[in-house]
Amino acid sequence: MAPITATIVPLVTLFVGSTTAFVTPTGRGASWSLANPQHAVRSSTSAVATRHNARRRSSATPATSSLRMVSEVAEQRAAKLRETAAAFRAEAAELEQKQARERRENAQRSFNTFDSNKDGSVDVAELKAGLEGPLRRSFTKTLQARMGRKPSKEEVDDRIAGLPGGTLFPDDLALKLIQTYDQNGDGLLQQSEFAPTEELRTRLENLFSQQREEERVARMEERQRQMDDRMRPDAGTVVVSPGDVNDGPATTADKALSALPYVLPLADGVVFAAHLFGAFPEQTAWAQPLAAVLLALRSVPFATLIGFFSLSIWSSNPQINKLVRFNMQQAINLDIALILPGVVGAITGAVLGSDASKLAPLANASSDVVFVALLAAVAYSVGTSATGSFPNKLPLLGRLNRENPDNQEGGEE
């Protein structure tokens, strides 16, 4: 009996429990009715959705909190930057006000010093009197740096007398300085228009620089005008007055004279052609008469030395055409360049002694290179000069030539 009871009791309990799941109260009484199955399903589904949303909200809460914290930190930093910027602006405005106040005070002191007659305005004479003292001290310091000693008062006066206008502060510059600050155009500076002494000196130095630049431009324009006048077709031959510089276009005679200076480097460089003439007698037969003349000229005592100094003197003569002067200077530079290989050969022979013969092939090749380079340079210079152009494209030699027009244009600039 006990086994049966143990089996029936659980079954009854299971049945009662499953039945009550579909029974809902309909009122206050004890009557019960079965619930709607669809309503039960919806309630179960709503409960599941509620639990899912709660889990989503709980999982999204940390990310939202992190974003909120980052936004708050960024806002705090932005506020701090705005405060810093406002502080900087306030400091800048305060500094500007301080500088403006100091400028007004310095201008007031300078005006009181310059206004010698106390009429409430500064004219040209008073401005010059007030600035010539500082200008003289500055000029004396510059002169002392150049001379390496303190100049005497007489030396300073002599140098000032040699300046344009005989003064450190010409009237025209004083008038320009007044016009810079003269707001009402009366030719005078009132107290409200005046500036500190240092500012006046700085502005005056700028006016000096501007005046020098204008004078330089005027000189360049005058030179260009003279060159244009000489190059006019109706100008005829170039006429050079005493003391004038012959920088005009080269005539046919000038082009021919431009080739003569190269006799000097050829006479000194013909010794480097010994191997070429010996190794290739047939190929160099055409040049042997010229080589003989150059060797004969070289054999005359001090002939090349006299030619060297003569070219040096003539190349400084401004009445000789500029193209001829250029070629004279270039021939001198070529002749000087030939000294280096000769010195190297002499030192090598002295150091090696009898062993120097072992380097004969190298010495012959070097001599050939030197002579061929010399011939190429002379041929280029003569050929270019024949066209009326300056042969100033030789490496290094062109830049060393003081008559190079490219160098002079760079100097002018």
Automatic annotation (TrEMBL):
Transcription in keyword set: no
PROSITE patterns: EF_HAND_1, EF_HAND_2
EF-hand domain mapped to chain residues: 102-137
Position of the signal peptide: 1-21
GO cellular component, one term: chloroplast membrane
Subcellular location: Plastid, Chloroplast membrane
Membrane topology: Multi-pass membrane protein
Keywords: Calcium, Coiled coil, Membrane, Signal, Transmembrane, Transmembrane helix
Transmembrane regions: 290-311, 332-354, 369-390
Pfam family, one: EF-hand_7
Residue span of region Disordered: 43-66
GO MF annotation terms: calcium ion binding
Residues in coiled coil: 71-110
UniProt cross-references to Gene3D superfamilies, sorted A to Z: EF-hand
Family indicated by similarity: Belongs to the Tic20 family.
Protein's name according to its UniProt entry: EF-hand domain-containing protein
